[in-house]
Amino acid sequence: MCGIVGNINKSLVKNNLIEGLKKLEYRGYDSVGIALVNNNKAIDILKSEGKIDDFLSKYKDNKSDGQIGIGHTRWATHGIPSDNNAHPIFDYYKTLAVVHNGIIENYLEIKTYLQSKGYEFVTDTDTECIANLISSYIKDGYSITKAIDFTIEKITGHAAVLILSEDHPSTIYGFKKGFAGSLLIGKSDEQIAIASDFQTLISNSKEYMVLEDGERVVATKDGILISNGKSNVRKKWLPINEDEEIVSKNNYQFFMEKEIHEQSDVFLKNFQGRVDFNKKTVNFANEFNNLDLATIKRIHLIGMGSSYYACMLASYWLEKISKIPVQCSNSSEFRYRNPVIENNTLIVPVSQSGETADTLSASNLARELKVDQICITNTTNSELERITKNSIMMRASSEIGVASTKTFMATIEIFFIIALYLSQINHVNEDLSDIFDELKIIPSYIDNILKNSDKIIKLSNKYSSNNNFLFLGRGQNYPIAMEGALKLKELSYVHAEGYPAGEMKHGPISLIDSNMPVINIVTDGPYLNKMISNIREIQSRKGKIIVLTNCPEKLDSSWYDDIITFDKTDDILSPFLSTVCVQLFAMYLAISRNLDIDRPRNLAKSVTVE
Ligand code: M6R
Fold this sequence. Notes:
Blueprint lengths: L2 E7 L4 H11 L6 E7 L5 E7 L2 H7 L9 E7 L14 E2 L5 E9 L2 H10 L10 H13 L4 H11 L2 E9 L2 E10 L6 E4 L3 E5 L2 H4 L5 E4 L5 E5 L2 E5 L10 E2 L15 H7 L1 H9 L3 E2 L4 E2 L15 E6 L1 H18 L3 E5 H6 L8 E7 L5 H12 L3 E2 L1 E3 L5 H6 L2 E3 L12 H20 L7 H19 L2 H9 L5 E6 L4 H15 L2 E6 L16 E6 L5 H13 L3 E6 L12 E4 L8 H19 L18
Parallel strand pairs: 17-18, 17-19, 19-20, 19-21, 21-22, 23-24, 23-25, 25-26, 26-27
Antiparallel strand pairs: 1-4, 1-10, 2-3, 2-4, 5-6, 6-7, 7-8, 8-12, 9-10, 9-11, 11-14, 12-13, 15-16
Bound molecules: 5-amino-5-deoxy-1-O-phosphono-D-mannitol.
């Protein structure tokens, strides 16, 4: 959840650190800080609560700088966001500065032990344990590298850490334990750079290497030494062939708004090389190249948040189209329930960031169990790709808005294409040619919703003072009800629940009164009459009814308060369009509440702690 940078340079590093942190701010934005080795070989720490702009205005007149430094943008786990709890964190003697991503699970035990040795703690963070533990081993007479190795051994949990030491002013130390986000090391003629993600690294590096679980790095301007605690690890520098992606809002007010509007393009990009609309065939052979899909008897999908809802939707599609039994699990549940995985199961972890700690742990468990995996991700060189070995890229380009939109769309599209592909290679005897014809038109139907978003803007204004919402759907639109409720919660901070509409009368119906707007996804297909019964039941209890529908002609206007329409397709494709409607509704409602659309409170784009 936090972002980490480090820089060793022939020139001054403060600006490089800040530029790096700006790129990583999506990972956490409650406080920010840097540590620099100054001209006197002492460590200066500058840090503040709030976003990078707050930091910059606090330190606008500060002249500290140096040729080596580390930095951090934080998503708080232990201790409220504050100047004091912001990283870097000093050890007790103020000779070591530490930045950390992850959670030290045994921090209380370590803290108590160190307090018994006279160490005083001045922050509420678990990170201070790392600083003081290293410091205590050094006081016991060990070298700093030994002290770090002992610390790696002693702590439990997940950690990605960088350390500056006043006694070694030309060196950045670091280590990685478990899954707390990536630590990538880059180099060019001028500098050594360290960052939590690849996009940040490529702005100033020509080659890179990846620090793996259990590894410690010693970085100086002369080179990099990596050890696994027992011996040195020889790694090759890998070339960076990608150009830095320039991301801007163009003429949109928010990144999220732009990203919602990019969805038809993303949709088209994900067809390329995969779907042949003339022959009505799908070719995924290049992406599935290490896997023998003909042997797959069962599929298990795992993810968190929107990625999990994408998995839920995919389970409907895969079973219906490819006739393979599918199970889907929330990664954090899968990980700890000792899952029974039958032979010939394919596991598909989904994560736009490729860094979600719960999904990484779940996928790592699958790796340990030697189950075939292929991930779906939007991040090249992500940790998830390294675990699964096989990946399908979302082709959604960078998503900056913290709430997922175009990456959700790309994921569900990829799943739909996989369903077609599996049906093809398993010779499922069903004529899907109409589906291909309709799938091709989805991008233009998405654009139609966007062109007519005025109606959704008016509706979100109308309901902007409501604090509770229900979203109902059936079949493949049930996961979209869940996703709609999640988008609304994330962006507008209102309470929203998604339900399969059939569940309503089993409890949630007691919530219905004239203050409860219920958003019903009503599409022309096998669930139509059932959804009509649901809205009639809500109306009998005076609930406010909003319908999102592709068949207004089949609904009597007296049955609902408000209506949002989208183009009619085969019902199986309707989630692509209902998704856009719930995204717009949530975004505009948050805009009318004057909230931070791209960086909603308490959230982070990459959730690198379990
Ligand atoms: O990077 P991931 O796809 O693994 O992220 C999973 C969830 O954290 C993510 O979908 C989250 O729910 C988003 N904020 C949804 O908008």
